[in-house]
Structures are given as structure tokens and as C-alpha cells.
């Protein structure tokens, strides 16, 4: 016999209310009232007002001829300057990556001499401004009037240290110091057991680095390297100091002759934004490629999101 004081099981569902005619009465709907965030609306209005004032100040500036910006965006001189900016950035980045890998290996070496030399190099080039380094290379003839490499090459330093060479050395050698630290972090991220296992199999230290350690370290090295290249595109404007005719110098030359100084600065900004935006897209997909082994579910790319939305829209239209 069941005791009347027995309790109902914990997972038992409450019985629905029954009306007079025997029908079930549905539960009362919950009326959720969203929290009002007045601060968000006030801050949004303030920000939009400030942006509108800034845009209006530039648009109504009497001394700025906005038509000149459109006239000179695709000027041959500007395009040539943008091409030189891209060229010096790519070459300096290649030099920085190659030297950075060498310096990182030297820094991690058990040889105290090579480790100390790499540390001093990184300390000097990271501790002095790029602008100063460019001027040092450009005026190197004051210290070494002649470049004498014996029977290989001999010439005056003034003829050797052209604006292009000074810009390449100044940017490339400075970038090598930063790439050395990035590469060192990538090499140290690889478990030391990988190296020990390779040595146990009879592989030399150089072969272990080339075949085992560096390929695994690329997952850590590649993303910041892409960021460094985008930064290099902007830093290349400093070679204006060594009279290399890159984008900023080309636009400044046109501005000084046409008296459209501010307009040509806007033209330079447009091209810098275009180049950095394009390579930012490349960096995004490059990071996704090297993150495949570390993330189970990668976020959708913008193109994948568009494709999913279009497929959902087509299914809705088909169902209607």
C-alpha cells in the first residue's frame, strides 16, 4: 500500500492545469522586458557627432582642393613611387627574414662567441631609431671613403652607397633584429624532445634544424612576420631622408611644385592604405593556413560567411 506521505520523484513534471470542460490550459507566456542601455545611445550619439564635425572640417576646408586628390591618385610619378615603396619593402623584408633566422640560430647556439655577437647585433639595431640608421648608412663615406674588397671589388663609397643601397641596408638590417627575436621565439616553442629524438636517430644539428625544428616553428613565426611586413610598408616612408624616390618623396615633390601639399599627402595616405589592406588580407589567410593544426574549428572567412548567407537565402526563397 502506497503511503500518502510519499514524495513525488524529483524529475516528475508538474501536471498541466485543466479547464472546466476538460481542456488543458496553456501556461502563461513569459513577458521579457529588455534592459535599457541609455549610456550606449548617449556614447554613440557623441561619437557620431564628433566624427561628423571632423568630416565637415575637412570637407569645408577652403585651402584644400579635393579635386586635386582624384587628379593625382593615378599620376605616373605617384605610381612609380608606390612601386618603389613596394620593391624596397619586399627586398628589405627578405633580407630581414634571412638574417633573422641566422641570428636566431646564433643566439641559441651553445658557442658563447656567436651567441654574444648575435645579442650585440640585436641590442644595437633594436635600440637605435631606423631614421638614425638610415643616415648612418647614407653618410658611411665619411668613415670609409673607399670600399676595397681586394681583387673582387674596389670603388669609392659614394658611388656604392646609393640612396637605394642605403635604404635597403637601413631597413633590412634593422628588420633582421626584430625577425631574430620572432624566429627565436618560434624555435623555442618547439619541444626539445624533437631535437633529442632527431639526434638519437643520427641526424646532425643542421639537418635537425632544417628538417624538424624550423618546419614546426613556422606556425609561430609566420603570423608576426606578416605583421612585420605590413609595418615595413609604412616604415619605408623614412627612406625619404636618404633621397630615395619612394611614394612619400614622389608625392612631396609634386606637392612642392603644384602647391598642393596637403592634397598630395592625402594621395600618399590612400596608396599606403591600399597596400597595407591588400597584404592584410594575405596575412589573414596565411595565419589561417598555419593555424590548421592548432585549432579544431577555424572561424569562417568573410567569403564563407557570404556563401552561407546566400545559400540560406536561396533555401528560404525555395521554401516560399
Automatic annotation (TrEMBL):
The keyword Transmembrane helix applies. It is a multi-pass membrane protein. Its main location: membrane. One of its GO terms (molecular function) is transmembrane transporter activity. CDD domains: TM_PBP2. GO terms for biological process: amino acid transport. It holds the Pfam family BPD_transp_1. One of its GO terms (cellular component) is ATP-binding cassette (ABC) transporter complex. Keywords: Amino-acid transport, Cell membrane, Membrane, Transmembrane, Transmembrane helix, Transport. The chain crosses the membrane at residues 41-61, 81-106, 118-144, 265-286. The HisPMQJ complex is composed of two ATP-binding proteins (HisP), two transmembrane proteins (HisM and HisQ) and a solute-binding protein (HisJ). The HisPMQ-ArgT complex is composed of two ATP-binding proteins (HisP), two transmembrane proteins (HisM and HisQ) and a solute-binding protein (ArgT). Belongs to the binding-protein-dependent transport system permease family. NCBIfam families: HEQRo_perm_3TM. This is Histidine/lysine/arginine/ornithine transport system permease protein HisM. It comes from Streptomyces sp. NBC_00180.
Amino acid at each position: 500500500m502506497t503511503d500518502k506521505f510519499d514524495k513525488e520523484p524529483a524529475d516528475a513534471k508538474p501536471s498541466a492545469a485543466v479547464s472546466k470542460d476538460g481542456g488543458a490550459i496553456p501556461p502563461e507566456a513569459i513577458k521579457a522586458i529588455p534592459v535599457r542601455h541609455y549610456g550606449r545611445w548617449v556614447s554613440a550619439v557623441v561619437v557620431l557627432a564628433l566624427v561628423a564635425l571632423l568630416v565637415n572640417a575637412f570637407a569645408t576646408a577652403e585651402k584644400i582642393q579635393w579635386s586635386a586628390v582624384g587628379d593625382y591618385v593615378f599620376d605616373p610619378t605617384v605610381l612609380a613611387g608606390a612601386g618603389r615603396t613596394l620593391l624596397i619593402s619586399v627586398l628589405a623584408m627578405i633580407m630581414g627574414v634571412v638574417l633573422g633566422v641566422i641570428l636566431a640560430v646564433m643566439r641559441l647556439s651553445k658557442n658563447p662567441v656567436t651567441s654574444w655577437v648575435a645579442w650585440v647585433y640585436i641590442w644595437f639595431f633594436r635600440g637605435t631609431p631606423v631614421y638614425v640608421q638610415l643616415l648612418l648608412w647614407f653618410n658611411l663615406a665619411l668613415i670609409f671613403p673607399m670600399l676595397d674588397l681586394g681583387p673582387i671589388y674596389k670603388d669609392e663609397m659614394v658611388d656604392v652607397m646609393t640612396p637605394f643601397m642605403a635604404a635597403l641596408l637601413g631597413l633590412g638590417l634593422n628588420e633582421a633584429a626584430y625577425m631574430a627575436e620572432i624566429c627565436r621565439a618560434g624555435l623555442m616553442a618547439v619541444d626539445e624532445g624533437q631535437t633529442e629524438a632527431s639526434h638519437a636517430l643520427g641526424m646532425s644539428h643542421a639537418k635537425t634544424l632544417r628538417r624538424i625544428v624550423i618546419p614546426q616553428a613556422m606556425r609561430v613565426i609566420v603570423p608576426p612576420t606578416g605583421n612585420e611586413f605590413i609595418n615595413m610598408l609604412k616604415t619605408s616612408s623614412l627612406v625619404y631622408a636618404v633621397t630615395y624616390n619612394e611614394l612619400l618623396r614622389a608625392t612631396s615633390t609634386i606637392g612642392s611644385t603644384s602647391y598642393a601639399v596637403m592634397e598630395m599627402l592625402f594621395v600618399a595616405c590612400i596608396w599606403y592604405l591600399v597596400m597595407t589592406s591588400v597584404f592584410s588580407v594575405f596575412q589573414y589567410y596565411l595565419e589561417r593556413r598555419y593555424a590548421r593544426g592548432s585549432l579544431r574549428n577555424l572561424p569562417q572567412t568573410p567569403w564563407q560567411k557570404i556563401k552561407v548567407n546566400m545559400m540560406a537565402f536561396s533555401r528560404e526563397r525555395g521554401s516560399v
